[in-house]
Specification:
Radius of gyration: 27 Å
CATH topology of the domain at 61-147: Jelly Rolls
Strand content: 25-35%
Shape: globular
CATH superfamily of the domain at 61-147: Jelly Rolls
Strand order of the largest sheet: 1-8-3-6
Order of helices and strands: HEEEEEEEEE
Helix content: 10-25%
Structural class: alpha+beta
């Protein structure tokens, strides 16, 4: 008798699982399985901040992500980038002098595709720290940044 009750309970549970599966197939999905999660695009461009076309260095690809932190008044010194660079201002204010192409000031929340193979110099012109998330799309054997040193 006990065995019959167990078998009956098993069949009812199995039936409930099958029924839920059928209902699940018939009901519309709340989350589309073939779509990408929502994105908040920060920037999308085929050009740098100066309108230069983005060009990748020769060689095996190498991505590098870093956070640059600068004290108030601190400068990067003149430098160039040999790899395309995405920047996102996490904190503070950074003013970049692009020489004949003028200056631009970036603040928290700003995104940019930095100048490529053009000498420029960034200075923290804010009252506090300036922190920039930078992502280089470089290549093995190619320096992302070259300074005057």
């Amino acid at each position: 008798m006990r065995m019959r009750r167990l078998i009956g309970a098993y069949r009812r549970a199995l039936g409930a699982v099958v029924l839920c599966g059928v209902i699940g197939l018939a009901a519309p999905s709340a989350v589309a399985r073939d779509s990408y999660p929502p994105l908040e695009v920060l920037i999308s461009s085929s050009e740098t901040i100066l309108g230069q076309p983005i060009a990748y260095p020769e060689g095996p690809a190498k991505l590098t992500a870093a956070i640059v932190t600068m004290q108030p008044g601190q400068s990067t010194g003149p430098h160039i980038h040999n790899a395309p660079l995405f920047g996102y201002m996490l904190e503070g204010e950074l003013t970049v002098n692009y020489g004949v192409d003028g200056t631009r000031t970036y603040r928290q929340g700003d995104s940019l595709i930095e100048a490529f193979q053009t000498v420029h110099d960034g200075t923290n012109t804010g009252a506090g720290l300036a922190r920039v998330l930078v992502v280089f799309a470089g290549a093995e054997g190619t320096k992302n940044t070259v300074t005057g040193d």
